[in-house]
Design goal:
Elements lengths: L1 H17 L1 H20 L15 H10 E8 L5 E6 L4 H7 L23 E5 L13 E2 L5 H5 L6 H14 L7 H4 L5 H8 L2 E2 L2
Length: 197
Amino acid sequence: MRKHTELLRTNLLGWLYRHDWQLAGVLAIAVIAAAVFVLWPRPASTASAAPVISAADVDTAQERTVIVYINGAVRSPGLYTLASTLRVSDAIVAAGGLTQEADPNCLPNLAAHLKDAKQIAVPLIGHCAKGKKAKLDINTATRDQLLLVPGMDAALADAIVKYREDFGGFLALTELKSAMGLDANTYKQLAKSLQVS
């Protein structure tokens, strides 16, 4: 058996030596074919393309919702995505409503429409935004509170208290001019600090 194996080996080696150039050529062609197969550019896969959204569709979607930031004296401050048809009061409700520390005399315009990328600040008591001071209600203010109003003197404060007692209060702030005879400049100064609720 050993002799037979030796003979087979000798014949095989002889055949390989006689055909070495042909074998090298076949091997070279196989390597080149494999390289071409691996490196050859292939057409893009036929995966479904992403849906195309038109500019009009994007504009319509953005018109339907707005993102607003609500902070200050609300229960859950943060970013909210809301319908663009809502108002500031709806945004405050979405943020959990006002806290006990909210300043009711210094709230933002609750009837204003929401606008995208805007901040709604609900101030705490004593922290009015933009230095805005709360106006004093002329129908509920005491004489001492009235005396703290710029442009108010003791005689006018007494006259306001008497007018409230006689007529049940002011229906409009303009009654200071018509009923009490205030000039336009004094009225304008007082109107900055007084209101009728």
